[in-house]
UniProtKB/TrEMBL annotation:
NCBIfam families registered for this protein in UniProt: Cof-subfamily, HAD-SF-IIB
PROSITE patterns recorded: COF_1 (PS01228), COF_2 (PS01229)
Highest rank taxon of the organism: Bacteria
InterPro entries for the chain: Cof (IPR000150), HAD-like_sf (IPR036412), HAD-SF_hydro_IIB (IPR006379), HAD_sf (IPR023214)
GO molecular function, one term: phosphatase activity
GO cellular component assignments: cytosol
The protein's name in its UniProt record: Haloacid dehalogenase
Length: 272
């Protein structure tokens, strides 16, 4: 078996437990593999602002020059300076398609660039939007549709609604977005639209190439559909114990759940 050299780890539902905490066992396991020379990359759908406090608990920068992938592959940063080395943005047609999708299905729209959480044409957002802003440690910035469409730095859209309503929107019209970007259901209450051909797998593959690693030298650990391409590309794929069924079917290994420090278990049992 080819020796694993790079380990990619999702945050929510993977490194973090259901209380949105990093179990101490996971912290200790990551510190140990860093000391052994393994490279660690956090791959998350979160923004930098929403993930930084967890990354800093891991002391990743104590190892070699390390990187983190944010917003499901739209952004890659170099640590410890958090220097953005790769960014993908949505084009005008993708933003217009996203706006049409929101109007048709009466969803809430949030747009992101590297620094902002834009609430689009929605002066009274629901608790779902407010809670997401709090989770990501970002202030809500209210913008009009015109201001949103004029912003050429947008790298991700999120469509937000209660789960049942989002199920209906996804079944009825998500295919209409695929011509313009990469839609992914990353949470029961949230669909994301990324730039075309952008996902965690694409970003991880590019980063691995930069570091000189092949897929056979990469382990990836995740739980949700936005982790699919990352686990599909990495030869050593690990599904969390509570992962959704497609991830469990895809993965080479299955570890314990996120509430049982499944990352620590994977690092102790599946790396060589």
């Amino acid at each position: 078996m080819t020796k694993i050299k790079l380990i990619a780890i999702d945050l929510d539902g993977t490194l973090l437990n259901d209380e949105t905490q990093v179990p101490q066992a996971n912290i200790a396991a990551i510190e140990q593999v860093i000391k052994q020379g393994y490279r660690i990359v956090i791959c998350t759908g979160r923004t930098l602002q929403g993930a930084k406090r967890f990354i800093e608990q891991l002391n990743i920068e104590a190892g070699q020059e390390e990187y983190t992938i944010f917003q499901n592959g739209a952004l890659t940063y170099r640590l410890p300076e958090y220097e953005c080395i790769q960014v993908f943005t949505l084009n005008a047609k993708a933003k217009q398609a996203g706006l049409a999708f929101v109007r048709k299905h009466q969803l809430e729209l949030v747009a992101f660039d590297t620094e902002h959480f834009y609430v689009v044409d929605n002066p009274e957002p629901t608790h779902l939007v407010k809670d997401d802003a709090e989770t990501l440690a970002m202030d809500m910035v209210f913008v009009s549709e015109e201001e949103f469409l004029a912003n050429d730095r947008i790298n991700k859209l999120t469509f937000i609604a209660p789960e049942a309503k989002l199920d209906q929107a996804q079944a009825a019209g998500i295919a209409s977005l695929e011509e313009y970007g990469n839609p992914v259901r990353s949470q029961p209450w949230l669909i994301e639209l990324l730039p075309q051909a952008v996902n965690k797998g694409v970003a991880l593959k590019a980063l691995a190439a930069k570091l000189g690693f092949e897929a056979s030298e990469v382990m990836a650990i995740g739980d949700q559909l936005n982790d699919y391409e990352m686990l599909e590309w990495a030869e050593h794929s690990v599904a969390m114990g509570q992962a959704v069924e497609p991830i469990q079917k895809l993965a080479r290994y299955q570890t314990k759940s996120n509430n049982e420090a499944g990352v620590a278990y994977a690092l102790a049992n599946f790396i060589n």
